[in-house]
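re: ur question from earlier - yeah i can do the single chain one, its not a big deal. heres the input i used so u can compare w yours
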Amino acid sequence: MYHVIEDERAHKLMYKAFELSLSRPTNSQIAKTILSNEDCNKVQSENNLSFLSRVQSAVVTFLQRNELEYKKYNNLKGSPKCECDYDCDCYLNEFIMPAFKDLALKFEPYIKDNSLINHILEEYTVEEKERLLNCNLREVLRLMLYKGLAYLAFEHGLYDVSCWHHESAVLMYGGSIAGESFDPSEYVENELSDRNRKASDARWQQHREEKKERKEKYLKIMKDKGFSTYSDAATYIKQHVDTDKKPSFSTVCRLLSQADKGDFS
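and the output i got, formated as tokens:
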């Protein structure tokens, strides 16, 4: 019982630590790096934080309004039909990542046409509006979007997806410190591509191992039963061993031929 309680406590602490990490970079850090907060007076500094808070609220509203469409084609509870008999990534590739990418693409026009920025800046004086417009506000919007996407994924229990979007936000922030641009969508695409490659390698590795096992099993049956031809052995195998539609009779013959010649690859 003690260990169960300790495990639950450790899980809760880890969960809270993960959630806390998603808050970074904080609004104060963004204000300091992108809005030059250290060079501002008290009023300007307060305006920096209020501007960031308004941007954050706008992003949350956008994601909430688009969440119904996000759930329209998938409730995140099932996996698409696939031939993998292990914990695969097919569901992630087919349903979830395209949904997140679609949300990012839908928000992009607000970043490019400055409509959202201009709407938020209506609350400020002309002088403050001009000061803020001299900062890289598009970077602020994009950074806030990826923080929002990270939270959205976290709320759905998609912790790996949350990590990718959070890492994108952190790298964007780091890029602003170093004065270098960073493409978050390209980073997420590369992460997904790398995951796809690893998943594909895992599937093919399992396929190769199963193929080798079939060859060894079929050849043993052929020798133990004393069959002199591959077709006779294959007929027996299809009638008494592997009776499903797959592998086909011709496939069994081919595997027997390869195994009999010493090819177990």
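The chain has two domains: 2-182, 211-260. not sure if urs matches, ping me
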